[in-house]
Amino acid sequence: TEVAVLVGQKTRVQQYSAKLLHGPEQTLTAIPGSFLGPVIRLQKGQKVRIHLHNQLSENTITHWHGLHVPADVDGHPMYAISSGQTFVYEFEVVNRACMAIYHPHPHEATATQVYHGLVGAMIINDEEEAALGLPSGEFEIPIVIQDKLFDSQNQLIYSPGMHGSMFGFYGNRILVNGHPEMQLEVASRAYRLRFLNGSTARIYKLAWDDGTPITVLGVDGGLLEQPENMPYVMLAPGERLDVWADFSNRSVGSQLVMRSLAFSGVVPAMGMGMMRSQAYGLPVGSDYPIFTARITQKVTDSTKLPSTLSKISRYSISDSHNPNQPVPITISEGHMQMLLNGRPHAYNDVQDNERIPLNTVQLIEIFHDQGGGHGMSGMGMGRGMGMGGMGMMGGMMAMAHPIHLHGQSFQIVSRSIDSANEGGYATVNQGFVNSGLKDTVLVMPGETVRLIKPFQDYKGLFMFHCHNLEHEDMGMMREFLVE
Ligand code: C2O
Ligand code: CU
Ligand code: CU
């Protein structure tokens, strides 16, 4: 199956193209008319072999975002292959049912390759999920949201430059499954919508325009225990959302729009100003439509929303290796330097608190280095180094970061916000689905997030990074050595 890149209406075909070979034919479903990679469907317990042929003119390697696989098939940049080479992945699917992502992970080129089309959804099914009888086939629809910048000739542009690296690169159009102004034609029945934020930096605040709550079935790591109704849901790059959308009481001809609602606090005022001056057109946190669902057909449908979805096996803090001393992940923000644990990504640079004993469960705390993060001083820079509240740079550069950890999913234990950032936080915090298993968590400015994550089965290097892909490429990535 050819994963070719053809973006927008009149845009030229990009030179990028990559090929994924596959096993049984039915594991792949192309999204009609889309430049995205085909949906790869796998079953829990399945053994898979995937050949990645690099037909780009540059290095690449594919990562299976959300899957728990051995380190040597996790898409670490050190395994990047050059043009014309093939990488063979072999692994067993051990994840529960979920929607994962496959996307490139080469050193400093993840954002540009994702932007130009090398991203797709991977859906894992299992027996627990199958027993629920959720809408499937044409009633299960992937919704991959991306923003892209088009010029007046409708040509695709990717030119992050300094501002785009600092604050993320933002487009002026929203694409769903590769289509601008996406119209979904639906019947008056229940659907399962599988959202994936495949944007490099843009964060969405998803809501139905008529105030209908969003019925959440699951998140990154699969189904929740029971459905949850939310007024809106925040979806940051790399995050997924599984939604029950019931159109059964709607009349033919009516429509429902999914919008991204207004919110604040995720990009500093300074960054917003710069982006506006560059005519980005669609400011982050403004209100705009994502897609329209139009009811075109009356049908009778007996599909019912199950009241119980799943059983999640959870850990408690006391199961963790060091309950009193969480593994720190510090976020520091300086000029052209977004860092984790005070250091940029580098090979062979694992620090003491980035070493994790195999088969342990770890309490992890993600927090902002209040001192402002001037670089290389490393692990010593934590909270308390600042000047009461936010340091100079920290205040000016503070922004939201979707932090992603490779390997097994984690549970969110707690979130807290400092008083200086309560205002922006209040515009987003009803939109976090904290009850589900996650692999990516949006960390707002001034926010501290605690999570519990197991590190089982596989030794080796497992990355963690900001999924604002411009930040990742700038080096906002570190790795755990599981040993
Ligand atoms: Cu989706 Cu390491 O990334
Ligand atoms: Cu990942
Ligand atoms: Cu970031």
Would you give an account of this structure?
The protein has 483 residues and is mainly beta. The chain contains seven helices and 32 strands. It folds into three domains: 2-126, Cupredoxins -  blue copper proteins (Immunoglobulin-like, Sandwich), CATH 2.60.40; 137-297, Sandwich (Immunoglobulin-like), CATH 2.60.40; 317-482, Cupredoxins -  blue copper proteins (Immunoglobulin-like, Sandwich). It has helices at 110-115, 127-130, 161-167, 269-277, 392-397, 422-425, 469-474, and strands at 2-6, 13-20, 28-29, 39-43, 47-53, 62-65, 86-92, 98-104, 120-125, 140-150, 156-157, 173-176, 179-180, 182-187, 190-197, 204-208, 214-219, 222-230, 233-235, 240-246, 255-260, 288-297, 327-334, 337-340, 355-356, 360-368, 401-405, 411-417, 440-443, 447-455, 460-466, 477-482. Strands 10, 11, 12, 13, 15, 17, 18 and 20 form an eight-stranded mixed β-sheet that branches. Strands 3-4-9-8-6 form a five-stranded mixed β-sheet. The protein is globular and about 60 Å long. The model is unreliable at 1-24 and 372-394 (pLDDT under 50). Bound molecules: CU-O-CU linkage and copper (II) ion (2 copies). Residues 338, 401, 466, 468, 471, 476 line the site of one copper (II) ion. Residues 13-128, 396-483 form the Plastocyanin-like domain. It catalyses: 4 Cu(+) + O2 + 4 H(+) = 4 Cu(2+) + 2 H2O. This is Multicopper oxidase CueO.
